[in-house]
């Protein structure tokens, strides 16, 4: 991955909370110089404050034309946060937002119609380099801009390009929020193990390793998840007994997850209107 354009012209990170920190950590590990980075955050973590010693600029005046400005504040904070970036809306600096809901159009209104804008949706496994981010750019984003955005996000996991911004609500509901569904699966699988008589710590260890192992196998295997499921399921065995419950048409996993994903996508659409 080449970060030369970013190292030469600088990167501004607006909001360095959970997602901002996860991405920054990945960029620094991939060779981004700390002194090319300006972080704007009214409540910086100890970790970010520590990076000042390595040359990172924290809450300092913005560089004039950084290569890219990453927007990683909550959607509800946009109104307060974006005016600080208006000076960068000169058509040279690429803006890349990871905020749920907020549309490219809303950023163009706030930052200027000529601004090159990428909207992206990463997820928290970025903190361990195993995220996935979907991206889409506006008409002012050229190939080199998009490659720069993808290079930055691929420092923390996989990337996919969307065909249309409309798909972003579904992406947010599947992979943006998705880690929370999986963490809840771990919690509830462990609790069910405790209910079956296992010690709590052991149940949690079993549940975490099972989800991590199944995820790794699903990524690595040639077979699709359907075949991998069939491979676990002996005729008339234990898995078949469980799947009979989980695959129930009315109150099983498919109906439940469909309702959950629909609720998340609907909320993403609402956030875009707030
Ligand atoms: N947490 C997640 O799983 C994901 C979050 N996102 C999006 O990422 C964005 C950030 O989310 P998190 O990192 O989870 O939130 P967070 O609350 O951990 O971080 C937000 C940061 O913004 C800072 N901030 C608040 N007002 C500011 C201002 N006016 N100027 C500069 N910084 C300001 C806060 O001090 C905080 O450090 C949100 O828009 C969210 O929709 C996207 C994908 C996944
Ligand atoms: O819950 C949220 O709104 C954010 C967006 C995707 C994950 N977290």
Automatic annotation (TrEMBL):
Annotated localization: Cytoplasm
Species of the source: Paramylibacter kogurei
GO terms, biological process: L-proline biosynthetic process
Lineage: Bacteria, Pseudomonadati, Pseudomonadota, Alphaproteobacteria, Rhodobacterales
GO cellular component: cytoplasm
Annotated EC: 1.5.1.2
Keywords for this protein: Amino-acid biosynthesis, Cytoplasm, NADP, Oxidoreductase, Proline biosynthesis
Residue intervals of the Pyrroline-5-carboxylate reductase dimerisation domain: 165-271
NCBIfam families: proC
Record-given protein name: Pyrroline-5-carboxylate reductase
Pyrroline-5-carboxylate reductase catalytic N-terminal domain mapped to chain residues: 13-100
Predominant cellular place of this UniProt entry's protein: cytoplasm
UniProt cross-references to PANTHER family, sorted A to Z: PYRROLINE-5-CARBOXYLATE REDUCTASE (PTHR11645), PYRROLINE-5-CARBOXYLATE REDUCTASE 3 (PTHR11645:SF0)
Reaction(s) catalysed (UniProt annotation): L-proline + NADP(+) = (S)-1-pyrroline-5-carboxylate + NADPH + 2 H(+); L-proline + NAD(+) = (S)-1-pyrroline-5-carboxylate + NADH + 2 H(+)
Binding residues annotated for NADP(+), in chain numbering: 14-19, 72-75
Function: Catalyzes the reduction of 1-pyrroline-5-carboxylate (PCA) to L-proline.
Matching InterPro entries: 6-PGluconate_DH-like_C_sf (IPR008927), NAD(P)-bd_dom_sf (IPR036291), P5C_Rdtase_cat_N (IPR028939), P5CR_dimer (IPR029036), Pyrroline-COOH_reductase (IPR000304)
Annotated metabolic or biological route of this protein: Amino-acid biosynthesis; L-proline biosynthesis; L-proline from L-glutamate 5-semialdehyde: step 1/1
Molecular function (Gene Ontology), one example: pyrroline-5-carboxylate reductase activity
């Amino acid at each position: 991955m080449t970060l030369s354009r970013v190292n030469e012209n600088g990167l501004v990170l607006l909001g360095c909370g959970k997602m901002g920190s996860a991405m920054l950590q990945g960029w620094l590990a991939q060779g981004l110089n700390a002194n090319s980075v300006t972080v704007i955050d009214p409540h910086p973590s100890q970790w970010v404050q520590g990076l000042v010693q390595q040359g990172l600029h924290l809450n300092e005046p913005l560089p004039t034309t950084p290569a890219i400005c990453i927007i990683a504040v909550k959607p509800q904070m946009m109104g307060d946060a974006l005016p600080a970036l208006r000076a960068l809306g000169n058509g040279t600096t690429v803006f890349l937002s990871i905020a749920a809901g907020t549309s490219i159009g809303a950023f163009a209104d706030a930052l200027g119609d000529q601004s090159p804008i990428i909207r992206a949706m990463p997820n928290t496994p970025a903190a361990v380099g195993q995220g996935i981010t979907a991206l889409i750019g506006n008409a002012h984003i050229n190939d080199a801009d998009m490659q720069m955005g993808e290079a930055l996000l691929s420092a923390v996991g996989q990337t996919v390009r969307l065909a249309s911004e409309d798909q972003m609500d579904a992406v947010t509901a599947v992979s943006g929020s998705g880690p929370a569904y999986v963490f809840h699966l771990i919690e509830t699988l462990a609790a069910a193990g405790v209910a079956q008589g296992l010690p709590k710590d052991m149940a949690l260890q079993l549940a975490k390793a099972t989800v991590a192992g199944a995820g790794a196998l699903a990524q690595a295997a040639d077979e699709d998840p359907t075949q991998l499921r069939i491979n676990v399921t002996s005729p008339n065995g234990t898995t078949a007994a469980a799947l009979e419950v989980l695959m129930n048409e009315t109150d099983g996993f498919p109906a439940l997850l469909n309702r959950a994903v629909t609720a998340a996508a609907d909320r993403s659409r609402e956030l875009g209107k707030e």
